[in-house]
From TrEMBL:
Protein name, per record: 4-aminobutyrate aminotransferase
Organism: Duffyella gerundensis
Family to which this protein belongs: Belongs to the class-III pyridoxal-phosphate-dependent aminotransferase family.
Entry keyword annotation includes Transferase: yes
Cofactor or coenzyme needed: pyridoxal 5'-phosphate
Length: 448
């Protein structure tokens, strides 16, 4: 029997929970089961029926207000007026594909490339992060002449055939490609190594050597620079440098999947990879760049991209369409005008400090780590053994839902709360989140 997917099944509604639902919610779950494919999942034992969003807040059908601490896709906040207006205005003018000339895609590309190291000087657009990573793998193979891709043990990079074959977080029911190799996550909390960077680089080299032993030529290393699916592993800054050196020394390229850590999210830098002082060969982005509008990008060094594009035409029908570019431009403008990178850094640091006070109160809080508005909150049975407490983590997110706070879990053990709110999250929201965590943990650990 296949194991459950860590990102799809860990925090999900089960059929056995249906009897406890209110009649209206039960009717919706029943209807979903009749008309939608069975691969879909719902969050929570009692699913949330959401009808409205604004900024960092969501409202359900009963009018209850929730604090969203999970939805990074609405990166600058749900229903941001600048995105709504930009999309509305462009929809009234034109929406078509990229085989016609249009200023929007060119103006946006210039503005976006200006945020990146100068060596990264070409842009291509798709509709989803999966498509961006799919193309990145194809480019890596064309450039290197190899096929082998290395990812971390709980990585998630997409749902296409190529990307699902390099996404172990989807579970053993989704087989990995024969050319995929996994490295253990660079977990500073659990890895006992004097230099995490050297340790991680050695893991990369071991897998490259294993590929060679099996007749597979190495093509590249694909990583989300905050290792979000592995449990949010941001520190120490710089630990990726040795790994990227190993990748290049072995003829491969480094693909930075910035769908989650990019666009000012981590505070210290605009791009997550920049916290490590490395320059990727390819950067991929996803729907947060458009605040949820289906748009994604591949940004690359021209010589790396040329290995693919000089021989193979690429066309993604509505990738980079004028409406998507208008949304993306609005997001980029808001990030700059509202100074959201500095906001993420300052408010994220305050949130991290407040969350760490809970470690003094609850022995089950093993570690709290993060960068900007991207934080991992790890639950353990005891701090000495660091034994993961998945049951407590799952019960905690249900309690938080009762306290009108929405989030979920990550990591190989399903015991890390992934706190990743829209960047509209404000200082005054810290009390709501930390207070809800405090009350929920008190209720769940009473008598321990």
């Amino acid at each position: 029997m296949a194991t459950r997917s860590t990102i799809m099944d860990t925090n999900s509604f089960r059929a056995e929970d249906a009897a406890a639902l209110d009649a209206d919610v039960r009717a919706l779950t029943d209807k979903r089961s009749k008309v939608l494919g069975e691969s879909y999942r719902l969050f929570y034992r009692k699913p949330v029926h959401l009808v409205r969003g604004k900024g960092q807040y969501l409202w359900d059908a009963a009018g209850d207000k929730y604090l969203d601490v999970y939805n990074n896709v609405a990166s600058i906040g749900h229903c941001h007026p600048a995105v709504i207006e930009a999309v509305h205005q462009q929809m009234m003018q034109l929406n078509t594909h990229t085989r016609y000339l249009h200023e929007g895609i060119l103006d946006y590309s210039e503005a976006l490339l200006a945020t990146l190291p100068s060596a990264i000087d070409r842009a291509m657009y798709m509709c989803t992060g999966s498509e961006a990573n799919d193309l990145a793998i194809r480019v890596a193979r064309a450039y290197s002449g190899g096929t082998g891709i290395i990812v971390s043990q709980e990585a998630y990079h997409g749902t296409s055939d190529l990307t699902s074959g390099a996404s172990p977080a989807l579970g053993s029911g989704q087989p990995l490609a024969a050319t995929t190799r996994l490295v253990p996550p660079p977990d500073a909390y659990r890895v006992n190594a004097p230099d995490l960077g050297n340790w991680f680089a050695d893991q990369i080299q071991q897998q490259i050597d294993d590929m060679a032993a099996h007749g597979i030529k190495f093509a590249g290393f694909l990583a989300d620079s905050i290792f979000s699916s592995d449990g949010v592993l941001p520190n120490p800054p710089g630990f990726l440098q040795q790994a990227v050196e190993v990748v290049h020394r072995n003829g491969g390229i480094f693909i930075a999947d910035e769908v989650q850590p990019g666009f000012a999210r981590t505070g210290d830098t605009f791009w997550g990879f920049a916290r490590h002082g490395v320059i990727p060969d390819i950067v991929t982005t996803g729907k947060p760049m458009g605040n949820g509008i289906p748009v994604s990008g591949l940004l690359a060094k021209s010589d790396v991209l040329a290995a693919f594009s000089d021989d193979i035409p690429y066309f993604n029908t509505f990738g980079g369409n004028p409406v998507a570019m208008a949304a993306a431009q609005a997001v980029l403008t808001v990030i700059k005008e509202e100074n959201l990178q500095e906001h993420s850094r300052v408010v994220g640091a305050q949130l991290l400090a407040e969350l760490r006070t809970l470690m003094d109160k609850y022995a089950c809080v093993g570690d709290v780590r993060g960068a900007g508005l991207f934080i991992g909150f790890e639950l353990v049975t005891d701090r000495e053994s660091k034994t993961p407490d998945k049951t407590l983590a799952l019960n905690l997110i249900e309690k938080l839902r009762e306290n009108r706070v929405l989030t979920s879990v990550a990591g190989p053990y399903g015991n890390v709360l992934k706190l990743r709110p829209p960047m509209a999250f404000q200082v005054q929201d810290i009390d709501w989140l930390v207070g809800a965590l405090d009350r929920s943990l008190a209720a769940l650990t009473q008598g321990r």
